[in-house]
Design a protein that fits this description.
Length: 397
């Protein structure tokens, strides 16, 4: 252990991947597990995207690509941002990376100095605080409970800001809650940010297309803070392309250039073939995106109705993404024989080992009272999972 740097020692392992791994291990032993832990669409990548990738292989897209991404892909992203979000960017304001995860990490590493504070509306995705810690920054968690639909208010944001605040990381639609900020809510937050110079927004919009309340709203639309917003997005969720690893940032040129410098020393331009596939995804017909969204919406309705039947669960109605984040702390202190449930993690392990349903405890998302279900799985599996959950939790006294 002594050989590992302090910086990596301080990092927590990804709780989402850890639970998914445990679920796979049980499955490998022959146990029939319903995996609702990791969040990734269960659909296949659309055919027109796969065909573009095959063409790219045959056309020898096999050499290093420019660090910020092929110009044709950056053009496709520029068109997407204009067409879908009404946002105007030039090619020097776009950087393509190895998944939105790298885009986020590029932005954090490039903006945050040791000791800088980063405001994290919480619950938030497991990787945000770890990225901030990697940069030597200080995560400042602003908690929004289920009573406020897991969304922070402008007053809460104002209260969290100090002279050391450098960044706020927003995620809408949200992982892990599925909450979606409305235009008015974003405008309220933008006003607070506008009043404080030198604060930047990293706006994670990876779930943009999995939205059940209408059009997506980006905080980059507000002119008064536009120059201080970095939009993060990608193809993983909208196009069922998690394994292709293409994400991007769009933001002020100075920042994108600096992130490119970092990326040029770290990973270079991302996979050439995947870039050509992503270009086809952005430029092609968007019907598959809508088809998948409708399926997610049906599953959302199904899981919400099933979760409401579980005694002791408090359930919000997610307006986007594919996660449900019920409050489950009424089970803390209960037992099944010698086994005592003291936390959401205990509950997640109990559900996995006894009920054979994989979930993720809420602590890694900043909400130890909640548990996350990914409903990016079939209706049949969702129904079966909740049959097992009901039966398993009934054993806790
Ligand atoms: N942001 C959030 C909130 C996510 O849930 C994910 C999913 N892993 C990502 C970013 C990263 O996505 P990607 O697969 O593009 O790296
Ligand atoms: N975003 C997904 C999740 O939260 C994928 C896993 C990860 O990247 O953490 O489950």
């Amino acid at each position: 252990m002594g050989q590992i740097s302090d910086r990596v020692m301080r990092l927590a392992a990804s709780a989402t991947f850890a639970m998914s791994q445990k679920s796979s291990e049980l499955s490998a032993q022959g146990v029939d597990v319903v995996n609702m832990s990791v969040g990734e669409p269960d659909f296949n990548t659309p055919d027109y995207v796969k065909e573009a990738a095959i063409r790219a292989v045959n056309e020898n897209y096999s050499r290093y690509s420019p660090v910020p991404g092929y110009m044709s892909l950056r053009d496709a992203i520029i068109n997407k941002l204009k067409r879908e979000n009404g946002l105007e960017y030039g090619p020097s304001q776009i950087l393509v990376s190895t998944g939105a995860k790298q885009s986020l990490c590029n932005a954090v590493m490039t903006l945050v100095n040791p000791g800088d504070e980063v405001v994290l509306p919480s619950p938030c995705w497991v990787s945000y605080p770890e990225m901030v810690k990697l940069a030597g920054g200080v995560p400042v968690v602003v908690k929004a409970g289920i009573d406020q639909d897991f969304k922070i208010t402008p007053a809460q944001l104002e209260e969290a800001i100090t002279p050391k605040t450098k960044v706020i990381m927003l995620c809408s639609p949200s992982n892990p809650t599925g909450s979606v900020y409305s235009r008015q809510e974003l405008e309220g937050l933008a006003k607070v940010i506008a009043a404080h110079d030198g604060i930047y927004v990293i706006s994670d919009e990876i779930y943009e297309h999995i939205n059940f309340i209408g059009g997506h709203e980006s905080i980059a639309q507000f002119a008064e803070i536009r120059e201080r917003v970095v939009v993060i997005n990608g193809v993983s969720k909208a196009y069922a392309m998690t394994g292709w690893r293409i994400g991007f940032m769009a933001g002020p040129e100075w920042l994108v250039k600096a992130c490119g410098k970092l990326q040029g020393q770290y990973t270079s331009g991302t996979c050439s073939v995947a870039q050509k596939a992503a270009e086809a995804a952005f430029n092609g017909p968007q019907d598959d995106v809508e088809k998948m969204r409708l399926v997610f919406q049906r599953r959302r309705d199904l899981i919400v109705s099933l979760a409401k039947e579980i005694p002791g669960f408090e359930v919000n109605t997610p307006q986007g993404a594919f996660y449900l984040f019920p409050k489950c702390d009424s089970y803390f202190g209960k037992r099944d024989g010698d086994r005592v449930i003291n936390s959401a993690e205990d509950l997640a392990m109990y559900l996995l080992e006894v009920g054979h349903v994989a979930t993720v405890g809420g602590t890694a998302f900043g909400s130890p009272e909640c548990i996350r279900f990914s409903y990016a799985t079939s209706d049949e599996k969702i129904v079966e999972a909740f049959r097992r959950i009901k039966e398993t939790l009934a054993r806790l006294k």
